[in-house]
TrEMBL record, chain A:
Lineage: Bacteria, Pseudomonadati, Pseudomonadota, Gammaproteobacteria, Chromatiales
GO molecular function: dimethyl sulfoxide reductase activity
This protein's UniProt keywords: Membrane, Transmembrane, Transmembrane helix
GO biological process: anaerobic electron transport chain
Name of the protein: Dimethyl sulfoxide reductase anchor subunit
Pfam entry (one): DmsC
Transmembrane segments: 43-67, 88-108, 123-147, 159-182, 188-208, 264-283
From TrEMBL, chain B:
UniProt protein name: 4Fe-4S dicluster domain-containing protein
Coiled-coil region list: none
Pfam families: Fer4_11, Fer4_4
Molecular-function GO terms, alphabetical: 4 iron, 4 sulfur cluster binding; metal ion binding
InterPro entries registered for this protein in UniProt: 4Fe4S_Fe-S-bd, 4Fe4S_Fe_S_CS, ET_IronSulfur_Cluster-Binding
Domain 4Fe-4S ferredoxin-type: 4-34, 64-95, 97-126
Key word Iron-sulfur present: yes
Organism: Thiorhodococcus minor
The entry's keywords: 4Fe-4S, Iron, Iron-sulfur, Metal-binding
Length: 324, 240
């Protein structure tokens, strides 16, 4: 497939935004039993605002993917059958909940509404829990857009959903560590540790995905494509000399070597480098290293998403092997 | 239920592209606006087509055979491109089974093209919406046209009658008979899309003549005939 930058930015930006929001709620939850130091409401409010900005940036990027962005509202129509439609509905819901969560903290609406045992439930906690569920649902919707297309055998696996979720969560917690480091806040090691754990989870799931894809058995062949039973069967012309939508949308146009190099690049930028940087930041107590760790990992995720698209081979490509 | 479809006879297709050009001509001149091309007269001409004729070579030289292969939307009975469309712009008509795109609803997200294993959908780079074969819906349903003209443009243009058009759910239609009696098959059956369009396979036309069919060994006249002939007409030479 041709990697479209609009979609690469959309999926990585909203992933980081959702992850940062999950990190804010996690921080709040951990502070209830005093596992970590409770933060002022402003910390969560500004963190949510940053998460919202990432979500908005992702949404803006997605419009560049559409031929007719002015009709985008129509995409909410077929949520019963289309994962794309579901994403279009869940994304604004998540954005609204992130905004509401941040606002509730900003306004310090923290008087308990009711109590469950020793747990005092206030507006922020309720919004946090609902927002977390919506955020996880958004990860599933986004990933299922790809995992649901059975023709793209590289994508048609639950591993796609795990990858999107772990990558998004890892970069979001990395961003939370960077945010805390920037404020000089003690939560940096808490978020940093979670970011490393999630990064390792993502590594496991992505390596399993790469292994699986290296052993894919193609369902379609040129024989089934045109229905002629002969082992020696090649295309001589594809019916157009100057290319077509089919050659632009479904081929990445780079050498296998280039794809392989981008794969090595993301394997380095997403996994060992940020983990080392976070580790070094503990030792050096540097406020800049976690920020650098997030930036490095985000750039790596762009490369990861690029390969994700470039890896996928569509069966229609069988019909577009030779120009003349 | 009716399911309109094309049946394409690979045995007689000569790869002349008449269907491609007549399709383009009809569908670029209709109510839906042009099917736009880019650089039509330049080095890399490209554009949107509903129908393409491709060529494949079977076997190794000199034992090769050339197969011309026209390809357009197959109007699948289980169209995977329809449920993925977020807007409902892609739909399958319940009355005749044709899969269509509502160009006024399409947002140009291209998701449906990912969900078609045949590469039958092409974006119009000018109108920014998805396009594909309509089986000339505006023509076959036009009651003002005489009955013989209510067929897709490509079918009428084909000089070798390689393209048959009709209802594949009617067992007595020309297309159903052709599929049944001449080994009609579907493309990429492994995906369960159940394409409505079918293809008729290549076949060798061979005639077998035995030696004794050349002389009438059982001709009683000749067996017992004692006449000596001198070049005149005999009963065997008379054409009945
Ligand atoms: S051939 Fe492709 S575009 Fe046409 S109905 Fe089937 S899946 Fe859809
Ligand atoms: S490109 Fe148009 S027809 Fe295709 S899925 Fe998107 S909105 Fe539907």
């Amino acid at each position: 497939m041709h990697p479209a930058f609009s979609v690469i930015f959309l999926t990585t930006l909203i992933g980081a935004g959702q992850g940062l929001y999950l990190a804010m709620v996690t921080g709040q939850l951990y502070s209830i039993p005093r596992f970590v130091e409770a933060q002022g409401d402003r910390f969560y409010a500004v963190g949510s605002l940053v998460a919202l900005l990432f979500l908005i940036a992702g949404l803006v990027a997605s419009f560049f993917h559409l031929g007719r962005p002015e009709r985008a509202w129509r995409a909410a129509a077929k949520w019963r059958t289309s994962w794309l439609s579901r994403e279009v509905i869940v994304l604004p819901i998540v954005m609204a909940l992130v905004l509401a969560y941040g606002l509730a903290h900003w306004m310090v609406w923290t008087d308990p509404l009711f109590e469950i045992g020793a747990l005092k439930v206030d507006v922020t906690l309720l919004l946090g829990v609902v927002g977390t569920l919506a955020s996880l649902a958004l990860f599933v919707c986004t990933a299922m857009i790809y995992a649901d297309v059975k023709f793209l055998q590289e994508w048609h696996t639950p591993l796609t959903v795990f990858n999107f979720t772990f990558f998004g969560a890892a970069s979001g917690f990395m961003l939370a560590a960077a945010y805390s480091a920037y404020l000089g806040n003690p939560l940096v090691s808490f978020y940093g540790t979670w970011a490393v754990i999630l990064t390792f989870a993502a590594l496991g799931s992505r390596l399993a995905h790469l292994y699986r894809n290296a052993h894919i058995k193609r369902k379609s062949t040129v024989q089934t494509a045109i229905g002629v039973r002969h082992n020696t069967l090649v295309q001589r012309t594809q019916g157009a000399t100057g290319g077509s939508f089919n050659t632009r949308e479904f081929f990445h146009g780079r050498s296998q070597r280039f794809v392989q190099n981008v794969r090595y690049l993301f394997l380095i930028l997403v996994f060992p480098l940020p983990v080392l940087l976070i580790g070094a930041s503990y030792v050096a107590e540097s406020p800049n290293l976690p920020i650098l760790a997030f930036v490095v990992q985000y750039v790596g995720l762009l490369a990861e998403r690029w390969t994700f698209f470039a890896e996928a081979q569509h069966p229609q490509n069988i019909y577009y092997q030779s120009v003349a | 239920m009716t399911q309109l479809a094309l049946v394409i006879d690979l045995n007689v297709c000569v790869g002349c592209h008449a269907c491609v050009t007549s399709c383009k001509e009809w569908n670029t001149s209709g109510w839906a606006g042009p099917l736009v091309d880019q650089n039509p007269y330049d080095a890399s001409p490209t554009g949107t087509f509903f129908n393409r004729v491709q060529t494949f070579e079977v076997g190794t030289y000199p034992n090769t055979e050339t197969v011309h292969f026209p390809k357009s939307c197959l109007h699948c009975e289980e169209p995977p491109c329809v449920p993925v469309c977020p807007t409902g712009a892609s739909y399958k008509r319940p009355d005749n089974g044709i899969v269509l795109v509502d160009y006024d609803k399409c947002i140009g997200c291209k998701y449906c093209s990912w969900a078609c294993p045949y590469g039958a959908r092409e974006v119009d780079e000018e109108q920014k919406v998805m396009k594909k074969c309509t089986l000339c819906i505006d023509r076959i349903t036009d009651a003002k046209l005489p009955e013989r003209d209510r067929k897709p443009s490509c079918v009428l243009a084909c000089p070798t009658s390689a393209r048959l058009f009709g209802d594949v759910h009617d067992p007595d239609s020309e297309v159903s008979v052709a599929i049944r009696e001449r080994g009609g098959y579907q493309l990429m059956p492994e995906w369960g899309t159940k394409p409505a369009n079918h293809y008729l396979p290549r076949q060798k036309t061979r005639m077998h003549i035995d030696l004794d069919e050349l002389t009438r060994v059982d001709n009683p006249l000749r067996k017992e005939d004692l006449t000596t002939y001198t070049g005149e007409e005999t009963l065997d030479d008379v054409a009945w």
